[in-house]
Amino acid sequence: MAKIDEKDRFYYSKDFLASPSGRSVRILSEYYGPYQRLQRNKISDTIVFFGSARTKSRDDAEKALANLPSNADKKILRRCKIDLKMSRYYEETRELASKFTLWSKNLKESKHRYIVCSGGGPGIMEASNRGASEAGGINIGFTISLPHEVSGNKWISNDLSMKFHYFFMRKFWFLYLAKALIVLPGGFGTLDELMELLTLLQTEKIKKRLPIVLHGKEFWEKVVNWEYLVEIGTISPEDLDLFHISDNVENTYKYVTDFISENELKGPNF
To answer: Measured between alpha carbons, how far is 206 from 118 in angstroms, rounded to an integer?
Structure first.
C-alpha cells in the first residue's frame, strides 16, 4: 500500500481550510480547541470582564499628561485629562479581578472555579488579567484577530490565551461558562457584548439568572436611558432586574459573591 503524503490530506491543506468549503471545520475548531484547553486546565467556570480596550492605567495616563508640552493643543490636553479620569476604571477592574481571584482560591474546589476571563486585549481587558495574575491566580484571555489591535496581553496565563477569528465563537465562550459578568465603560464592542447578553437572558436562551454588574454609574446612566426604554414600552419594567448598576469596588464584589453563594451556580449556561 502506497504511503499517503500529508499534503494529500485535506486537514493538512491550508488551501482547503481557508476556503469557503472549510468554514464549518474552522468554526468547529474554535469550539473544540478552547474546550480542550479549558478541560486540560480543569476550569469549571468563569467571571467575565467586558470593557474598553482604550482605557489607560493611572500610571500611563499620568505620564501622558505630565509629558505634554506647555503649549499643547487644547483638544489633546482635554483628551489626556479625560484619560486620567477614566483610568479609575482600569484600577478598579484590576482590584476587582484580584479580589475575585483570592476569593476563588479560598474555595478549595477540585476544579478551578470563577476564573477571571477577558477579551485578552489592552485596557480593561488587560486590567482584569493583570489583577488576577497579581493575586497569584490563573486567568483567561479570549483574543480576536483584528487589524488595528494587538491581542494577547502579557498577563494572561500560559496555555489560556486563545485567539479567535469568529466574533460569534468568541462570544459563545465568554458566556458558556460565565457565572458572573462585570461590564465596565466601553465602546461599540462592549455595548454589543452587553446587549447580546441581556437579550439572551431576557429571551431565556440563557435560563440561569446570572449576576450582571454595570460598573460605573455615571457612564451607564448617560449612555443608556434605561427608564426611557421602559416608559416607551420597548422593554418591560422587570427587565431592569437583569442587571445591577454599581459605582464602587466593594459593592460590585459583594453583589457578585453573595449572588453566587446564594444561588450555587454550576454547569454550562447553554
So the answer is: 20
